[in-house]
Amino acid sequence: MSDFPRQVGLARSSHREPIEEIGMKNxxxxxxxxxxxxxxxxxxxxxxxxxxxxxxxxxxxxxVFVDGDIDRVLRQxxxxxxxxxxxxxYGEDGCIQGLLETIGxxxxxxxxxxxxxxxxKLKSKELFRLYNVPTPPYYVVRGDDLDRLEQVxxxxxxxxxxxxxxxxxxxxxxPANGLAELRERCEDAAQFDDWVLVERLIKGxxxxxxxxxxxxxxxxxxxxxxxxxxxxxxxQKGQSEYHFPARLSPTRYQGVLNLAERAVHSVGxxxxxxVDLLVTADENEYVLEVNTLPGMTPTSLLPKIAAGAxxxxxxxxxxxxxxxxxxxxxxxxxTPPDGPPSQVHGQVPAE
Length: 351
Prior knowledge:
Elements lengths: L27 E7 L5 H17 L3 E7 L3 H7 L4 E4 L10 H9 L8 H8 L1 H10 L7 E5 L6 H5 L6 E5 L9 E3 L2 H11 L5 E6 L4 E8 L2 E10 L6 H5 L4 E4 L6 H18 L4 E8 L5 E7 L9 H8 L4 H10 L29
Parallel strand pairs: 1-2, 1-3
Antiparallel strand pairs: 4-7, 5-6, 5-7, 8-9, 8-11, 9-10, 11-12
Helix pairs in contact: 1-11
């Protein structure tokens, strides 16, 4: 591992300061978990794991279960800081962040805008292109326009990969090798979002980079036993093998870390994030998405990356908590650093 230029432990020296100089152990910490999305069960596991880790380290912590009356619950609660352990719609897309901003409760993770942009796979891809971050070619189609799918797909080609425009944990996502399978995949994805994203399926190794406040912690390579890193491969033990650090040359490993940092910067994300990439045999890398609230379950990637970089689970939870703050007034990141936007990374058919 010593041959790799950036292995780790950047979390401890992040440039971002905690919300106050007084210690977090003097605050009442609320773990927001559950939610109403298709990823509720994963959120419950993430929240429970973070609750136990912070409690074991002496924090005053309580669970705040999220459902339709969360606004009333938050206004009545005594918590000083919210640890956002939600996943999916209403928890990861800027909605709960906006509510916390309105109430005035500092929270972990990215702010409203960065959360919304990262959750929206179309908008994040548009920002990737603006910042010259390579991403697979794509188009979007409305769920109620699937009757013209053959016309829209046209010469885009196969294999393709289909996913809901918003969402995570590979819910409603999967590969398509022909028009019939494409239609089936799109109909499945349309159950979770009004819009469906279709990408060119790039053959390559799946790599994830953990990032804390813009600084890469390291890159892990995922080897799913089923060939596709789906919901089962992500959350059932023994369904995937992991290699840390990712099996890349030192130079290429450094390039992947740099690319992940650029992707995070492009959407303005802060706190603990995870960037998912594809690394091909012909020396190309493609960013798939930025996850602003990575899972914190026993099989989740961010804790594995942190462990490989020298942090145990409790260290990671504390690092996430210490960065809790309000984000009101934040906008898009600064001007793209690498010149004019590239036009080769995506395509959206005319409506």
